[in-house]
Amino acid sequence: MDRAQKEKVVEELGQIFESSGVVVVAHYEGLTVAEMQDLRGRARDGGASVRVAKNRLAKIALEGKPCASIADLMTGMTVLTYSEDPVAAAKVVEDFAKDNKKLEILGGAMGSNALDRAGVEAVSKMPSREELIATIAGMIGAPASNIAGAIGAPASNIASILSTIEDKAAA
C-alpha cells in the first residue's frame, strides 16, 4: 500500500469515526472467511457496516475525533462495526458474538463516550431508532383513539338505556 492509498484509508476511517453514532471494536482472530461474510451480511441487514483496517492507520484517523479514546483498543486483529443509528452496530455485534465465540468484543464509542465491553452490551439492549419512532407514534395515536371512544361511548350508553326501557315496556 503506497502513501496515497494510506492517506485515502485514513480519510475514509476519519469519516467513519466522525459520522457514526456508534463504533464497536472487536478482535476477529480465528474467524473464517465465511464467518466474516456472515458478520458483514448481518451488519448490512441490521443497518450497520463492518470494516477491517490497519491499527496504525485507524489510530491516525482517530486523532482529534470525538471517539479518540478507543485508540487504546486498536491492538491485534481488530474489526470495526459502525452505524449512524446509535444502537444498530452494537446489536449486530452482540448477536454475532453470541453465535460465534471467536469474535471478542473489546469496547467502542458512542459519540465522545467510550464504551467498555459491558457498555456495548448495554447499548445493544436499547431500543433502535425505528422501535422508538413506533413507540412514539403509538403514544401519539392513543389519545386520539381514547377521545373517539369517549365521544362514541355516550351514544352507545343511550342506545343501551333505550333498549332496556323498551324491553321493560314490552314485558
UniProtKB/TrEMBL annotation:
**InterPro entries assigned:** Ribosomal_uL10, Ribosomal_uL10-like_sf, Ribosomal_uL10_bac, Ribosomal_uL10_bac_type, Ribosomal_uL10_CS_bac
> Could you confirm whether the keyword RNA-binding appears in this record?
yes
Q: Which residues cross the membrane?
A: none
Picking any one GO biological process from the record gives: translation
Q: Which GO terms describe its molecular function?
A: large ribosomal subunit rRNA binding; structural constituent of ribosome
What Gene Ontology cellular component terms go with this record?
A: large ribosomal subunit
Q: Spell out the Gene3D superfamilies in the cross-references.
A: 3.30.70.1730, 6.10.250.290
Q: Which family does it belong to?
A: Belongs to the universal ribosomal protein uL10 family.
Q: How does it assemble?
A: Part of the ribosomal stalk of the 50S ribosomal subunit. The N-terminus interacts with L11 and the large rRNA to form the base of the stalk. The C-terminus forms an elongated spine to which L12 dimers bind in a sequential fashion forming a multimeric L10(L12)X complex.
Cite the NCBIfam families for this sequence.
PRK00099.1-1
Function text: Forms part of the ribosomal stalk, playing a central role in the interaction of the ribosome with GTP-bound translation factors.
What is the protein named?
Large ribosomal subunit protein uL10
Q: Which organism is it from?
A: Thalassococcus profundi
Taxonomic classification: Bacteria, Pseudomonadati, Pseudomonadota, Alphaproteobacteria, Rhodobacterales
